[in-house]
Design goal:
single chain, mainly alpha, 7 helices
Length: 177
Amino acid sequence: MNFPKREEYNNFFATYINHLPAANPLELLEKTQEYSLAILQNIPQELWNYRYEEGKWTVKELVMHLIDCEQILAYRALRFARGDFESALSFDEDAYAQATNLEAVSPSYLIKSTELLRQFTLHRFSGFTTAEQLQGGSEAFPTSVRAVAAIIAGHQLHHIYVLQERYLKQTVQKFEL
């Protein structure tokens, strides 16, 4: 799978794709997951319910956001690959975060969910044909299937950088292949 061309996604998603080197999106999905898990698995237990500022997500909510978005984006890619461009099925990420009660959910559950979902995402995207990878999206979500794979990887990196910087108070270790 080739890295998407600039015309395959809109400006909103450029923020995420710009975090990535121009490489095979499947490899990016795999490697960004390894990078992210190394950080998630080392978060101290007492920080998982921490908010760095009033009104911001907890670490658990941030990780659940990554899970929710990956599922939604992968579903969009499936619809586009099958020629269904009817709707991008938008969602309100803040409403999703508020709808979950993660106080009692264990960090290990969230990490395992992240791992399993990425395995399925990789499996799903590796099965798309070259023609399906180039299928475009809807007017509301103008992107190709292969761009969605890159968006998922870049979105994860974006939030892991925020996690490092604002929650863990660490210097961000930039992702490299």
